[in-house]
UniProtKB/TrEMBL annotation:
SMART domains: PHB. PANTHER family: AT06885P-RELATED (PTHR10264:SF19), BAND 7 PROTEIN-RELATED (PTHR10264). This is Slipin family protein. It comes from the Bacteria.
Amino acid sequence: MVEELLAGAAAASVLVIYATAAARVVKQYERGVVFRLGRLRPDVRGPGFTMILPFVDRLRKVNMQIVTMPVPAQDGITRDNVTVRVDAVIYFKVIDASEAVVQVEDYRFAVSQMAQTSLRSIIGKSDLDDLLSNREQLNQGLELMIDSPAVGWGVQIDRVEIKDVSLPETMKRSMSRQAEAERERRARIINADAELQASRKLAEAAAEMSEQPAALQLRLLQTVVAVAAEKNSTLVLPFPVELLRFLERATPGDAVRQPGAEQPPIPGP
């Protein structure tokens, strides 16, 4: 009886050890690739609890999440012979767990090296203006260059972004002077255009005033009023004879003529 109990306990212990060695848990964002005696099994284990043959099968878990990988800054010379330093970031994920394990030794390292090589190639094929202002098109070209070999590794490139473009200090100063000269040119053009419009308006105003001499006198009086409003200067204004003649025609004779006195004649010009 005791021997039977011992045999049962030993068998139960063996089953527990076997079950512990065979039990595996695959997380929701993972997939399990099984190798049986070194040969790849066609069925990829999904998330949840799964069993393998101990000492026969080997389960390798592959992360299916999107990986964010920074691309180290690369030094290069652009097509217009400018030395720049460019860094980027790449987003990718595994779409075929079996291919990612079998076709490449380390898919993360392979994608990183391919991204660095492609980034240097993009720098050599592009102008400085494209790197600074046309990044969207460069990102698409960089993504296509990396995605072409990555498809055979079971990896899909989601997005590639150029983060920063570092320029030498001499180039920064040259670009600053260029921008300053461009803004000065625009300011001069705007000022010249304003002078042209003002001269046209002044010519139109002069033409209108030449038809009505009284308008010129009224404009002179408005200027005097505007200057006198400051009250901080002395104004010396010659009194034109034309203004006296205008006042003479505009004022009735009875209002300025005293009784028993004769109106003095107004001297000519």
